Amino acid sequence: MAIQGSGQIKFSEIQTEYGGSNPIAISEYYGSGGVTGSGEIQLSDFYGTSNYSPISSSGGSVSTSGDYKFVTFTSSGTWGVTAASGAASNTVDYLVIAGGGNGVTACGGGGAGGMRSGTVTASTQNYTITVGGAGSNSSAVGITSNAGGTNGGSGGSGAGGNGTAGQGTRSGGSGTSGQGNSGGQGSANAVGGGGGGKGGSGGNWGSGSSVVAGDGGSGGTWSVNGTTYAGGGGGGSAHGYGSGDNPRGAGGSGGGGTGAAAIGAYSSGRVSASAGSSNTGGGGGGGGWYMGGASGGSGLVILRYKFQN
Length: 309
Prior knowledge:
It is a single chain. By secondary structure, the protein is mostly beta strands. The chain has 2 domains: 11-50, no CATH class; 53-309, no CATH class. The protein has one helix at residues 11-18, and strands at 52-53, 56-58, 61-65, 68-73, 77-82, 85-86, 91-97, 115-121, 125-129, 138-140, 143-145, 220-222, 227-229, 261-262, 270-271, 300-306. The protein has a 5-stranded antiparallel sheet with strand order 3-4-16-7-8, with no helix packed on it. Strands 2-5-9 form a 3-stranded antiparallel sheet, with no helix packed on it. A two-stranded antiparallel ribbon has the order 1-6. Strand 10 and strand 11 (143-145) form a beta hairpin. It starts with 10 loop residues before the first helix and ends with a strand. The model has no long low-confidence stretch (mean pLDDT 90).
């Protein structure tokens, strides 16, 4: 709490704000709160001063919520930081999401980009911020998240298994611990598995009254802002299974793309896959029947720090 801006100031009030020992010596407070670092000091020099000097920063897109600043990077850049001092905190909440994996023609949905969150202690320096596009890593404040898997491969979250005709059931790729989950199984009937998401694994292909591709795994919610990111891409289908059938896998919550579908008998009325949403790390939808898979969504970095009490 800042010292009053006018009127009488007591030595004890300065000590309460800036600390120090008894008996109080005014020389203890050289440089405190912006006052001179040498020579004569007057009590009035402390009017309106405070021992709270928060982080200041440059770069990114800045918004304010309550006592906090949010710094958002939707593309790569630099975050310049001057560290806090006094009673202010250098704790920074981070969210680092990599680019989602691409869906592929062989039907598997793309895995979501790896999603990591937590806290770090900032220091005075210029931090390099890397925001990955589809299939690329993101990094910030010493934290790296891995790109989503593609073509049945592993990643931040694993891609859905491909539905390659004649090659049996294909497992999805593995997710990276703490970043995402595995992709679902694809089938030999050219039906893909869903890509994994931060919040859950991709769905396996299914059969019954109709053959359906796996849905993308659900995304994860960042508790700091309540927003869901990093959903897996839905699997695609290379064939139609009868009039009115819709075998495409849905994208996972948090930006996952929907898979392609060859709707109707003999693959008439094809529907293309959709891309993962930009700056969510969502996986791209899987393709099918001469329809390519869709691109994964780009990544995202958000940093939050307290700028006032």
